[in-house]
# Entry
Amino acid sequence: MADGFMKYIDAISNVFKRSPSKKSLIWSGRNACDVPCYPIKPLDPHVIGACTGPLSGLSHIQLDSDGPHDPVPAAGIANWNHPLVEADGISLSLYDHKAEAAGRHGDPNADVYAVIARPNSAILVVADGCNWGPKPRQAARCAANGSVQHLNGLLFGSSAPCNTQGVTQVILESFNSAQMSIVRNGGTTTTLCVAVVCELAIPQGDLRWGVCVVSVGDSPCFVWQSKARQVIEVTSAAHEGQNRDMRDSGGCLGANVGDKPDLGNLTCSFALLSEGDIVFVTSDGVADNFDPVTLLEGVAQPTTPAHSASPPPVSLPVLTPDQRQAALLANLARIIECSRSRSKDEFLHAWEVMEAIVKHIIGVTDCLRSCMESSDFDNPALTSLERRTKELEVKEKLKTMRGKLDHATVAVYEVSCTSTNNNT
# Structure
């Protein structure tokens, strides 16, 4: 089965050709051989911190059931309820509350995250089920569970990879386990981004660490570079030179066509890291709320003449895809830097970055939520015509408001040799 999946990846690579590229300290391509081959130190298998969510996260993959709120042993981890200041995650809904029922529109939250910290490595996973409902959530849970189970089985011990290409290959093969789990357990489709941070055997100057990432879809991986005080996107090759399309993830695992995934933007990436850098993987519900177009700071440059029929508002600059990406990263860096200025420590901790991101996305979407909650769409007394009229009125109001309502998920890890005193 794994061989078949890898052959499928090779076949897709021949259709969607992408040359290996290096940008700053980021390498990317379609396969593990496209990233650099740095020797790594043996990865210590002792788990010192782990968390998953929302609710029971990847530890509960039964369809049509929320399962226990406390994560249970799963995917090779005995205790999923042990976040650290250096390794944590959160998933929340930015959608408006329902007027006539409990919960929010968009429930259930179809995102899943998992973070596992070890003395000289970490695994970060985010899966974002495509569309709403139990089956997309099932796909995300199964993808995260299958991938993490595979990684925990093959990254440690006598047969573990000894270099960054080997780690990337193991991550890539874990996508086969994710795909099989989705199909076997009745999920639909999901994005998946998996990052493994590891310590290099031979430091590259003061860069003693690296992060190997494989992604499909629009769940990106970022790094806060603590010394340069800037943010880079490790997965940028997945959309390089293209306008972000919030209606199309660009790829997915699961039953996209029959039982086949869509690996159109599958990307293997690698970046060098310094101690104190913070790696964070997010769903698009986070990334899109730092996008300058979503924040009404600019408009996207039309990609075809057909899209340029109506001129943009004169007050907003027209942004190329590269300018849009640069502004998104600058917005992230600004929010994190503000958090850094309030911190008493020289370096930020992972939880502080996570907190800053969450405060921003909640604040940016406040007006949208309030507008939707006051719209009274769910009022059963409304006629079809009245409801349609209200919908059109609200739609016009929403065009003037910043932000995007979505499920929003962050998994974060602070790069460091973490103490083994608190094994879990």
